[in-house]
Design a protein that fits this description.
Layout: H1 3-20, E1 23-26, E2 29-37, E3 45-54, E4 60-66, E5 70-81, E6 84-89, E7 93-95, E8 99-102, E9 109-116, E10 125-132, E11 136-145
Parallel strand pairs: 2-11
Antiparallel strand pairs: 1-2, 2-3, 3-8, 3-9, 4-7, 4-10, 5-6, 5-9, 10-11
Length: 160
Amino acid sequence: MKLHHVFAMAIAITTSSLSHAHEFKLKDLHIGHPYARTTVANQPSGAAYLTLENKGRSTDKLVSVASPAAKSVQIHSMSMEGNVMKMREVDGIELPPASKVEMKPGHGYHIMLIGLQQPLKAGNKFPLTLNFEKSGKTEVTVVVEAPKKEEAPAGGHKHH
């Protein structure tokens, strides 16, 4: 194979892998794959998910989140109480040294987008500003993805 063909293939492979994984860094914090699930027309809220990893030596805390995609953005926790799933707003997510918090549908934490400006459609992107107690603020890009087969359909969870 000629050298320019090998080079072109290497660029294509690198570009395609970058389109699937998007990560951000703020000091010792790593923010992995921010994404949201699609919503249906007139659905007033949605959820975003990401991974937070503290690779530093001191505790930090995610204290607030904001986005122009919604009127209000809150950090929520999800838990089972008996046979009822409860979702509540929390004042933040503590990140001790060497810790990792993975937000994903149906488990633990998520970011609630309340009063969506428009439906979230697969392939769309929007900015999300994360505010940390010690590390400060950073803006990440959230990519809207269709739900996976094993997840509840959009709008399938209720807040109590």
